[in-house]
Amino acid sequence: MKASIFLTRPQGKNEILAAGLAKQGYQSTLLPALSVFPIKDNQHPLPQPSDFQLVVFVSGLAVGFYLDVLCQQNPDFVWPAASHAATVGWASAQPLHDSGLFAPGQIIHPQACALAQDSEALWPLLAPLLPTLQRVLIVRGQRGREWLGAKLEQQGIHVQRHAMYDRAAAIWTAAQQQVVQHHLLGNWPAVFLLTSSESVDAICDAIQVLNLTSAFARSRFVVVHPRIADHLQQRLSVAGKLQPSMVKICSPTDSGILQALLASASTDTGS
Questions:
Q1: Which residues pair with 5 in a beta bridge?
Q2: How many whole angstroms separate alpha carbon 271 and alpha carbon 267?
């Protein structure tokens, strides 16, 4: 019996993976861990990139929400020549490249082949810019890591943080709960994709409500950063499971995730 694969990225972010899995003969269940929604702030104007030498986006979601509002306000907008844009990973930079708003060399990000795709990987790439930076905007969700902002402030740079979206645990329907129960209690492996610590918490909490924590802990997991693997380990340890069955850490790109899911699903499944 082939493994059951659960894709838990936000709605609209799982379909490419599902199609890739289907081509390899694997059916998957779309089970978003988090609901994502824009923050509408009518009290404060949107920070403009022309007021900053650098705008850092912490995720592809941050890019999408910010550029959507920016271009709605000014359909003829072009990114100012004196301002750079940066992302903490290659995948989150692709919407910037695809937007057509930037000149060559304005976008800074780790390459797809980089082992790390995070703030720590971006930091050395910003080093040549540091002497010229006075004001930096960080576009993010309502909550997030403070590492990069703190590093910039230690250099005497003014950092403004602007939240464009928030996330909340998705509420599973009765049908989704039944699907999860059926697959976790079946005699075949289950594979869960987890792409943030918040998604780990949301999935673990929902699983606990269903009283399926022990079965869940026997699953296989694909994560996109060691911090997520560590957080998963902590959650399972609290539940009494010292070690998850299998955790693969992969690149956050669609191709990297797909390969990790296929490897996890095909290992000793008996298919």
A1: 28, 191
A2: 9
For residue 62, give the nearest of 175, 183, 144 by alpha carbon: 144
Q: What is the rounded average pLDDT for all residues in the chain?
A: 90
Please give the Cα distance from 269 to 141 (Å, whole number): 38
Task: Dump pLDDT digits (tens) for 216-231.
Answer: 988 999 999 999 999 9
For CA atoms 201, 207, 208, 209, give the dihedral sign.
Answer: positive
Q: β-strands 54-57, 107-108: how paired?
A: unpaired
Domains of the chain: 4-33+170-266 (3.40.50.10090), 37-166 (3.40.50.10090)
Model confidence at 269: pLDDT above 60: no
Residues 149-186, buried b or exposed e (16+ Cβ, 10 A)? bebbeeeebebeebbbbebebbebeeebeebbeebbee
Do β-strands 190-194 and 4-7 pair in parallel, antiparallel, or remain unpaired?
Answer: parallel
What stretch of H or E contains 260? Answer: helix 254-266
- Contact of 64 with 41, CB cutoff 8 Å: no
